[in-house]
Known about the structure:
- By secondary structure, this protein is an alpha/beta fold.
- The protein has helices spanning 18-32, 53-82, 95-106, 128-135, 170-176, 217-227, 248-257, and strands at 6-11, 34-42, 86-92, 110-114, 121-122, 125-126, 140-143, 157-160, 184-189, 207-212, 232-235, 261-264.
- It folds into 2 domains: 6-143, HUPs (Rossmann fold, 3-Layer(aba) Sandwich); 157-264, Rossmann fold.
- α1 crosses α2 (53-82).
- The longest helix is centred in the first third of the chain and has 30 residues, at 53-82.
Amino acid sequence: MKASKYKILVLSDLKKHTASTIKSAVGLAKMVDAEIDVFHVKKPTDVVASDSQLSAIRTINQALNQSKNKIEKLINPFIEDYNVNITFNYGIGNIKSEIETYIENTKPDCIVLGKRNTKIINLTGDHLTDFILKSYSGPVLIVSKQNGITPETDLHLGLLNGQSQVFNQDFNSSLFQNTSAPLKSFNIVNSKSTTSTLGNTLNENTVDFVFEKNDNTIKKIDQYLEQNKVNLLLINRPDNKGTKINNNSEIKQIINNVNVSLFITSNTP
């Protein structure tokens, strides 16, 4: 555990499920002793429809004020109920550029996103989740609408294609200390006859599940996650050390097809 508090950044569009995303960020903050910062940015085309400069300025000011009021209305109950420090910022501009600059300036220890219904990539380009995973090297929490990690929820961890190295990272280690059940390890192998290197499991209480890789593997894992009451699945990012890890394509499949919240770990050199 580091000396100063961790900083958790929530990126939000302030739409329907924002409150549940912030509540999961609060749950995470209570576990690891962190402060929360909420950031929201709108595209100019979503705000300004008039060619008049005076009208545009007035409209932008109104939109910024609306964002401020909406964020305050969302976060104040959490501040009062859970005694957690939540700050916020908002703006108008190119969404990816504004977020990239904000991350660079604030240097969060973890980013929290709400999970989308749509796939990460569509015909118009990358969605925010894909952009964050490409541009930010720290851990990312993707909150499921059906299965968040609220302050009232016991933490049941799963680990996908990982080994105990995932818990050597400081933030992850703090998170693991709050789990209330044995770790469930889900491992995908090319063939069940193949000897799977499941070594370096965290402790003797770890429960291992092995799945043969095929078109139905992710669906089966989703079912086992539900059966074992896993509400947070840890996913290692690819690294260069030869350990058993997930490639980017597998991570996208998991994001799109499982109904639990996901904790995607930091990049490792």
